[in-house]
Design goal:
Helix content is 56%, strand content 8%. It has 235 residues and is α+β, with helices and mostly antiparallel strands. The protein is elongated. The chain has helices at residues 2-6, 34-47, 66-74, 90-104, 109-119, 138-147, 151-163, 166-173, 179-188, 192-196, 202-215, 218-234, and strands at 13-16, 55-58, 61-64, 79-84.
Length: 235
Amino acid sequence: MNNLVECIELPLVQVPVWSLKTVEPFKNLFPIRDTVLSEIIDDMTVNGFDAGHPIVVWNMTVVDGHTRLKAAIAAGLETVPVICRQFQDEDEALDYSIRNQRNRRNLTDGELFRCVETLYYKKKRGPRPKNCPCRIGKASLDVADTLGISSRQVEKFHAIGKYATGEIREALAAGKYTVSRAYEETMRTRRPQEINEPDADAELVHSVMADIHARMNTAQIRKLVKALQLELAIN
């Protein structure tokens, strides 16, 4: 039994479900989707646990496979197959978990937001690269690499996490707001002049800005700005 629990020098082993630990920051990083969980429970009840998709653990802590573990328990399984991996530290294990999820499914804006909040302050801080015109910080670049998104998008998520109201954060997490809309709503609250001096065109401007951010990348937006400047100069 000790060999099972310690999981030493065994690439793939069966361990009791009670021997596995589920803790933060891994436990709630990706909410378990009810429909997916239900389907896996039904399959495990009939066919058992598919050893081709084992749970990944680090010192008996579940790093990847929380949905599969919960399904196995619900299906009445007493043991599950696991692969034991070694990581230098929690940050490396967290990167591994997020990359696995990123490659397995399309992460929602709400899930990306949760990942950015978890990762941002764990990444090594450093000076902004001199050759980067957008002046993106090192933490944003590192998080962007882990999540497979742009560093500009990471900074939007970071700004939302830092300045947004609880309502905006909840709307983003629930999928009611896109990151662009949540960002625009957040930054609007940081512009006192727009609150004190209502502008009839403000809503339209913010709507167009949100649509631009959703449809265009940074390089395309710069080209659009230059085109608008040229048109205004001509007219």
